[in-house]
Prior knowledge:
heterotrimer, B: alpha/beta, 4-stranded antiparallel sheet, C: MetI-like fold, 80% helix, flat
Amino acid sequence: xxxxxxxxxxxxxxxxxxxxxxxxxxxRGSVAKELRIALQPIPFYAPLFIAKQQGWLEAELKQxxxxxxxHSFLSGPAVNEAFAAGEIDIxxxxxxxxxxxxxxxxxxxxxxxxxxxxxxQALAVPKNSTIKSVKELKGKRVAVTKGxxxxxFLVLAFQKNGLKINDVQLINLQIEDIGxxxxxxxxxxxxxxxxxxxxxxxxxxxxILTDGTGIKRxxxxxxxxxxxxxxxxxxxxxxxxxxxRGYEFLKADPERAAELVANEVNLTSKQLLQVFTKxxxxxxxxxxxxxxxxxxxxxxRAHKIIRSKVDVDAFVDRRYLQAIGNK
Amino acid sequence: MNGDGNLVIHNLSKEFVNSQKVIxxxxxxxxxxxxxxxxxxxxxSGCGKTTLLRIIAGLETNYQGTVTxxxxxxxGCGLDRGVVFQxxxxxxxxxxxxxxxxxxxxxAPQERERIIQEHIDLVGLTGFEHAYPHQLSGGMAQxxxxxxxxxxxxxxxxxxxxxxxxxxxxxIQMQQExxxxxxxxxxxMILVTHDIDEAIxxxxxxxxxxxxxxxxxxxxxxxxxxxxxxxxxxxxYLRREIYREFFASKDEDLVYAI
Amino acid sequence: xxxKLRLWQIGTDLKKTFLYFSLALVLLFVWQVLxxxxxxxxxxxxxxxxxxxxxxxxxxSGELLRxxxxxxxxVLEGFGLAASLGVxxxxxxxxxxxxxxxxxxxxxxxxxxxxxxxIPLAIIWFGIGEAxxxxxxxxxxxxxxxxxxxxxIRRIDPKLIELAKILEVPRRRFIKDLVLPGxxxxxxxGLRVGLGIAWMCVVAAELIAASEGVGxxxxxxxxxxxxxxxxxxxxxxxxxxxxxxxxxxxxSKRVLVWxxxxxxx
Lengths: 327, 258, 265
């Protein structure tokens, strides 16, 4: 009898442990107390950084007694983890990690594109490298962070130059390590994005072999958890409004904008002014954007980066943009 | 055998300093032991008898006075003095045979085999060559220790309460064994014990020591032929003499009543 | 009568085996049930069948075995290095008071640094090839082995040391016949612990630009939001680690025939 009771207790204990672990920390209830936003410290999200620096969201939500929590992550996959754990409501990332999130079963939707920036993706080589064209990378060691937008860009760049992914030694590295590896010459090339491109070129560590022009538009997206989007549409539109405002501010006064964004991204305002020209920050979801997403989805399924199909049309939700008067 | 093999201890003293106290472990020990003698040293705990033995063995080198063997002063440990401790101190990972072999250096392999087998037979452990210490009884393990101590043919064999960890019956058996071996090897035996009976049974002379400070109270000669009878009158007389050195006289009435 | 005895024996053996696996079985059972009820968020904890399926895919395609092989070689190389250096240095330090004193500070300061913290330096010193990974594994396994050797020497029964003095045992035989066998029990334990840590470090080591290996498999799956593959990887690491440990335990028993130990009630 005693042994049986022990067994029941054990099972009960395990269930208790599994339950919260299994469910994460989503905000329950229909009254939100805070808006949790995940960003990466890269210039792809400049308009939102401007909004953050100016405190627009905080001001707008103060009356409703809702606070804004900003979280910083070093890559899209890291933001995905936070989504999975229910730690954030809104996240900004490249199209590739966004599709991965959706394919893995995460309950998310895209409410806007943040920018497109073909020039903000690059294939770089060490400064003193003798390699002058992408073709020469055959058989060489190429570093990339798997699952990011530049991973797709890299494969497309290879395709354009008649190379297959198996023609090189692909090495999976985090972005900081790609920098170290390029500097020390431990790899022959690396796929990177802004601000690292500008940083490392100015440092004299790398040279650009090719960027995304004509290869990949390099769009980033704003993702919202479905539950949150349904329960708190006002907060989603508030964010989009803030983004729109940031975009207009940047167009009107790029110098001031650069100063503000320099606080969030590891570049000087002078460097940022240059970098801004690589991006089109207009929020919205155009047909071209949806086409791009579908192409990315196909690519990823073909390369086994995702294991199930993502219905892009269902993934995207234009209604919030429409609510703020955007097309 | 080099020299006459006589051990001469002259004015031996040793003190032990412990925080502020100075303990006189041994004081003015004078003792001459002739080659081939069997000496029993008996005393209570703290009388320094073990320290004395360790000094003779060469394990303690810090003392005042002189200790010479065949006229030459002692210089640390040596193969001329074998030791058997109260614990067998056998290497647990070696068989009986290998434990004895452990004591041998610089001996040709064939000689080795012969010497080892000879000593295994000597202590009566024939057939147990490949047993491990954990498979032996206390008495058997001590016999291996004995064989190991004898294998280098030491001039002097020092035994520090060698049978203390054994039960009473095995102890008596081992006492007979040691006599038998002594008669064959004919080396000097110095045995330290707290067992008065054992001291008298084995020794040519019994050295009685007192404690704090450790000195020699009395040396008794045992003139009985071997093998000795423990219930013999002379034996009993010696026993009472030594007993009296340790205990008060109120037991005397009991003795007269016998 | 004999038949009854045999049946009873089989019964007790079955009971023992069942007891051995019982806890794991309960865990799997709870996991499966929660999956069926729908209490598990698939993004965080995939259901048991999903994990099984992934395991099946990776195993039958031979991919899993390939990753295991690559990691295993790295671990054995790192562990081999740690064992030989650990024992040699341990002996030197254990037997020489001067050396012990000289090296103590450096060893004690380096000891608490986790292997992961060594990764940046490992990359700078050894690049991103095999050497840096083996270095990380080596660092992880080295300390438990070194410490077990030195500790083992310190714990040698001083009575045996005295015995060696009395028998005038020459230095070389002292080390070969007394010290080495004497320290074997704690050193075998140190080796087991070291191997376990080496295997744990394989995940850390494969953070350094790997393209194969069980650790790489986990990191890759993490970036691609594939928690079921992560679990397959973790499970593989656990099982292999257990098998290696069991092997060392068996080896210990064979080598330490003379060491009688308390097994519990």
